[in-house]
Write a structure and sequence with these properties.
mainly alpha, 7 helices
């Protein structure tokens, strides 16, 4: 093989790695954006399960195609086996209406585990085994689970 072929192979490999890596990251972010509040565990469990169930198929088909080629044939033809997976994924993604999806889950976002919601914070404060996090929507969420505003209200009532 000549140096130009090897260089082209490395260029394609680097581009594929960058594109597929960023696509996976973006896919997770989009999935999180469209996941209803308080259902993150269920949805991401399904996301991981479906990934684990099907992640073996493209490499197996690539290997089968690569091994079935006659000696001396270029192995780059094996990459054509992966094309249907990319096309189906692109078609499915083109059908996703993110704006409509966001509208459908908007009312559930307050139910997220670490939402800056007093009811959630009070519930978490009573469950000593669950940690709470600092920071929040408007600064009313602080470490310990009860915000400054709630502390002032409690102090004023006593």
């Amino acid at each position: 093989r000549d140096a130009a072929s090897v260089f082209a192979l490395y260029c394609v490999a680097i581009a594929s790695g960058v594109l597929y890596g960023s696509a996976m990251t973006t896919g997770r972010a989009l999935f999180a954006l469209l996941t209803p509040g308080a259902k993150e565990g269920e949805f991401f469990g399904l996301y991981v399960l479906s990934g684990k169930l099907f992640q073996w198929l493209p490499p197996l088909l690539f290997l089968s195609a690569n091994e079935s080629l006659a000696k001396g044939a270029h192995s780059h033809w094996s990459y054509l086996v992966l094309t249907p997976f990319l096309l189906v994924g692109a078609l499915l993604l083109a059908c996703v209406d993110t704006e409509l999806g966001q509208k459908h889950v908007q009312h559930t976002l307050a139910d997220r585990r670490w939402a800056c919601d007093t009811e959630v914070i009070e519930r978490m404060d009573t469950e000593a085994s669950r940690p709470t996090i600092a920071g929040g929507c408007d600064g009313s969420c602080v470490a310990g689970g009860v915000g400054e505003k709630e502390e002032e209200e409690k102090g004023g009532k006593e």
